């Protein structure tokens, strides 16, 4: 089975898992001598500490390389890889601090794009050292502006450091905001 088959799958049922992971206060344990409770830090707090210090790797695996191919149409995202995940929907799974080359093909009748949203890190990191942000985001170069029907776009970027989290992804086209299948994607960083 290819690395893509093992690491990229799409699944609409994972929305409930994401909702549970985004509930910051249920995982917080309060301040300790090594840091402060994640839930007590303002989401717009200044970040001054190195990400590796803030977010120790949960599984010890990172620095992987992934090639992910997905198609978007007027109703959702689908894996297009020639592996076991082809045809599955709405979930991408990769390691943190890893390089991803993502190809998006627009099979729809309107422009569609790709973007990954930010999440609270509190479910995986309930106590943070001072100077660490309680929010994590994919880099700005992980966004694909809307592309025309029949077009494709390829980008390369590094995934964020905080792992054990599910980041939401959606179409970046403004007109896609009301289409459920274009707003229910989940990127799991292991």
The percentage helix is 10-25%
Radius of gyration over alpha carbons?
A: 17 Å
The major β-sheet equals:
5 strands, mixed
Percent of sequence in beta strands: 25-35%
Strand order of the largest sheet: 4-13-12-6-10
Which descriptor suits the 3D outline?
A: elongated
Low-confidence runs: 1-33
State the end-to-end CA separation: 19 Å
Total number of helices = 4
**How many strands appear in the DSSP assignment?**
13
The structural class is: mainly beta
Order of helices and strands: HHHEHEEEEEEEEEEEE
Average pLDDT for all residues: 82
Structural features, described:
The protein has 190 residues and is mostly beta strands. The protein has 4 helices and 13 strands. 38% of the residues are buried. The model is unreliable at 1-33 (pLDDT under 50).
List the main descriptive attributes of the protein structure presented here.
190 residues, mainly beta, five-stranded mixed sheet, 4 helices
């Amino acid at each position: 089975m290819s690395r893509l088959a093992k690491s990229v799958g799409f699944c609409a049922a994972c929305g409930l898992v994401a909702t549970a992971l985004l509930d910051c206060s249920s995982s917080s344990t309060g301040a300790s001598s090594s840091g402060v409770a994640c839930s007590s830090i303002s989401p717009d707090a200044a970040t001054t500490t190195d990400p590796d210090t803030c977010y120790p790797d949960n599984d010890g695996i990172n620095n992987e390389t992934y090639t992910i191919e997905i198609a978007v149409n007027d109703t959702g995202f689908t894996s297009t890889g020639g592996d076991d995940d082809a045809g599955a929907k709405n979930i991408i799974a990769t390691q943190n601090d890893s390089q991803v080359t993502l190809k998006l093909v627009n099979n729809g009748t309107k422009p569609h794009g790709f973007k990954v949203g930010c999440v609270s890190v509190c479910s995986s990191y309930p106590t943070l050292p001072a100077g660490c942000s309680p929010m994590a985001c994919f880099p700005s170069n992980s966004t694909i502006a809307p592309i025309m029907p029949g077009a494709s776009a390829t980008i390369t970027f590094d995934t964020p450091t905080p792992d054990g989290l599910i980041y939401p992804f959606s179409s970046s086209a403004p007109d896609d905001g009301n289409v459920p299948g274009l707003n229910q994607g989940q990127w799991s960083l292991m």
